Amino acid sequence: MDLALEVGVSPRHLSFVETGRSRPSPELVLAIADRLEVPLRESNTLLLAAGYAPRYSERSLDDVALRSIRSSLQRMLDAHDPYPGVVIDRQWNVVLANRAAGALTAGLPAELVGPPLNVYRVCLHPDGLATRTLNFAEWANYLLRQLRRTISLTTDPELERILTEVAAYPNVARLAVPPEPGWDDPQLLVPLRLDLGGTELSMFTTLTTFGTPRDVTLDELAVELFFPADQPSEQLLRAAASSSPP
């Protein structure tokens, strides 16, 4: 009843749509998808199932129509340097990165750094960043929760394959499920703590998405920016930037 009121139809009509007794208009399909926060890719699937053409385009980030957006994203990443920053797609494949982000994966096996470089694989694989992550259990459980949440929202088969793969890594298989944090937990954020040759680099991360996407590609992109979690980490990142070539 609540959904029917929100999309502007009677509960009886929405019930008929749900059971297949009535065919919804494309406007009703999109209204339902909007109220249920269905991603654009799945909204296209709903339209196809109802007998209508997809409404939302899916262009490559290299498409001429997205050239200005790609340039803006790269400028954002470059301005964030010397702190790491990447643009990721729905599977968390890195599609754009700045210099500092590239430096974090230096020396890793070629099969892990792609293309495409997948954040879940490179962070959780025993030969990847897992070997340098001081709080691996904490960081890995955060990534696994994020991965499972996205699968529950999208039922993306590629993400399900990634989960099956990373869950079989021996270091991931040994992880215990952490308890939910309590109100007395003093930690504000889960940092990524890396051992860089005996020096600790601690960073927290933010994820930013487009506010009004009308293209499937843009709807599935997110900008992940890392920030130093303490003063020594900030000094380390700035010193690394000043000592490395452009």
Description:
- This protein folds into 2 domains: 2-49, no CATH class; 64-243, Beta-Lactamase.
- A 5-stranded antiparallel beta sheet has the order 2-1-5-4-3.
- By secondary structure, the protein is of the alpha+beta class.
- It has helices at residues 2-7, 11-19, 26-35, 40-49, 67-80, 99-104, 119-124, 136-154, 157-167, 170-173, 216-219, 231-243; strands spanning 85-88, 94-97, 192-196, 199-209, 222-228.
- Helix 3 (26-35) runs antiparallel to helix 4 (40-49) and helix 8 (136-154) runs antiparallel to helix 9.
- The termini are far apart.
- A hairpin with a 2-residue loop joins strand 3 (192-196) and strand 4.
- The chain contains 12 helices and 5 strands.
- Helix content is 46%, strand content 13%.
Provide the fold topology.
Blueprint: H1 2-7, H2 11-19, H3 26-35, H4 40-49, H5 67-80, E1 85-88, E2 94-97, H6 99-104, H7 119-124, H8 136-154, H9 157-167, H10 170-173, E3 192-196, E4 199-209, H11 216-219, E5 222-228, H12 231-243
Antiparallel strand pairs: 1-2, 1-5, 3-4, 4-5
Helix pairs in contact: 3-4, 8-9
